[in-house]
Every structure is written in structure tokens, then in C-alpha cells.
Amino acid sequence: MNTRSSSRRDVLAALCATLAAPSILRASPIQDMSGMAFGTSWRIAGTDVGGLEPLRRAVSDLFAEVDLEMSPWRADSTLSRFNTSTTGRAASSELTHVTEAALALAQISEGAFDPTVGPLVARWGFGPITDGAVADWRGVSVTEGWLSKTDSDLTLDLCGIAKGRALDRAARLARDQGLTDALLDLGGEFRALGRHPEGRDWRIAVEHPVTGHPTDMVLHLPAGMAVATSGLGVQSYGRNGQLWGHIMDPATAHPVAGRLRSVTVLAKDAMTADGWATALFAAGDDGGPALARVQDISAIFLFEDGQTLRRTDTGGIREVLG
């Protein structure tokens, strides 16, 4: 949720989710509409999309609303006002919903997903929350209409899950306006509505997490399902022979280290896929696949092994790989 216009490095560092993500495999006749939000692009591809100009305005307004509530890059966002508050702040039902989902994921992932690591992310050069306490997701709580914290220095950063929620809401808008068969893309996260005009599932090509080129892996995305990827393809830099990225390991207070380069997750909705992709990457080389198996998460883990990629699959992901 970035609204800044700056250098390429600044813009890339501002993206809330990685762009080491799948790309659309498209065939004619497909129409689309597109725009910009959260420092990245969005697109809706399908049939009769061009005739739904009111949908473009509705989606743009929706993303602007989400940005105003949940952007850590905006001093005037509700999230930023919570971060600078002493004990908490009033919040909309949508913000409390996303925060509850983030805290639930933090608990079930045993802290691999931690929405309070914003200051740590900034310390490594990737985020805007430069002041704050040590990460402690247990110090944040939600009641109806209110977000609370036990330490005045605790902060929230929902970038690892909020973009997925925004995509889910955009999909609902599209359905409400009569779009039954479409593929929605928000910064490399995808949500399928219906089927491709050819009568098949929408297909997503998984990109190489380092080069960005398509691999030979193709996901057949069933109607209603979503896919999200977290990785080091864009938001990373090398230091002392190690690749450091924006996804933190809360246990070490360092970026995740190892050979893992991307995690792609298939789920029933984009918020779930978004959050779990972040959590599984944060869990690391061994912990990520182990956690995915325990939680029965459908995921593809790609590891850099010399000049080649090594792949680990979990859950039912192979059932949709073509």
C-alpha cells in the first residue's frame, strides 16, 4: 500500500507483496481493464470486461479505501494512527477483520507470520515503520470497533495479508456487477471467477523466483480459487555472499536466510493465500514445508540449488499443476 513516486529501488522496496509471482497465460478473445494501486498494478481479464467501465471506478475506489485504512506508508491511514497511538484506536469492521485474520495466522503458524515486524523490516531497508518496539503479535488485540496494544511502541503492518483481502473484495465487486468469468490480478496475486472463455480453468504460469522468466510449471486455477506468491525475486539485495530479502524471521530478527526463493500457495481466497505464502516463506527452508504439511496447505516451494531450482510440493497442489 504505497502511494509514493520515487526511484525504482524505493518503489520496489515499497511493494507490500513480492512480485516473484505467477503470470497470466492468456488467449484470445480476452478483454481486460487495468490500473494502479498499492505501488503495483491490477488487472481484470475476461469476456465483456470492456463494457463494465463502472467496475473500473468501483475497483479503484475500493483500493483507495483500503489504502487509506491499511497503508503503513501513509501518515494519515488508520493503521498509521494506531501505530502512533499509546494504547489503541477505533477501527472499522474491515480493519478489525483483517487484523483478526493476521493474528489468527500468527498463532497457527507459531509466529512465523508476525504482523508486528514492521520496524524490523525497515531496519533492513524495506519498509516505512522506522520506529517501534520489538515484534510481539501477542501484544495486539481486537475487540468490536477497536484495536488495542499492550505496549505504546507496538506497531502493525498488514502488508502480508491486506492485499489479498483487497483482491477478494474486488472479486466480489466484479461478481456483483455481473462479471461471471474473469481472472483478477493484483500485483501478482490472482483470484479466478468462473472459467476461461474456452471453457477451461484459468491457467497461471509460475515464474522463476530469480530471473522472473516463466518456468514449465502451470497452475490450473479452479473457479473461486486464489493463488499468491512470496519470494525474493524483487525485494532483496546481496551482502557478504548472502541474499537478504524483505521477509523477516522473527526468531532471529534477520531476513529469512537459506536457499528458499519463493513459495506459491493455492487457497480458497486471496487473503488466505497471501498470508500463508508469507508465513511459509518466513518459516524457512525446513520449517516452511513442514508447516505446510501439518496445516495441509497446497504450496510450491522453490529452492535455489546452484544453477538449478529444486522444488517441494505440499497439500493438493499437484492436482492443479499441468
Q: How would you describe the overall organization of this protein?
A:
The chain is an alpha+beta fold and about 325 residues long. It has a domain of about 90 residues: Orthogonal Bundle (T-fold). About 30% of the residues lie in helices and about 30% in strands. Strand 17 and strand 18 form a beta hairpin.
List keywords for this structure.
single chain, 322 residues, alpha+beta, T-fold, 8-stranded antiparallel β-sheet, 3-stranded antiparallel β-sheet, 8 helices, 30% helix, 29% strand
Spell out the blueprint of helices and strands.
Elements: H1 8-14, E1 23-24, E2 31-37, E3 40-46, H2 53-70, H3 78-83, E4 88-90, H4 93-108, H5 118-123, E5 140-143, E6 146-149, H6 159-176, E7 182-186, E8 189-193, E9 202-207, E10 214-221, E11 226-231, E12 236-239, E13 242-245, E14 248-249, E15 254-255, E16 260-267, H7 270-282, H8 284-295, E17 298-305, E18 308-314
Antiparallel strand pairs: 1-9, 2-3, 3-7, 4-6, 5-6, 7-8, 8-11, 9-10, 11-16, 12-13, 14-15, 16-17, 17-18
| CATH homologous superfamily grouping of the domain at 72-160 | ApbE-like superfamily
SSE sequence, one letter per element? HEEEHHEHHEEHEEEEEEEEEEHHEE
Helix amount: 25-40%
Strands across the major sheet, in which order? 2-3-7-8-11-16-17-18
Low-confidence stretches: 3-21
Q: Tell me, what is the CATH class of the domain at 72-160?
A: Mainly Alpha
Tell me the β content. Answer: 25-35%
Indicate the mean pLDDT.
88
Major beta-sheet overview: 8 strands, antiparallel
Structural class category: alpha+beta
Distance between the termini: 33 Å
Shape descriptor reads globular
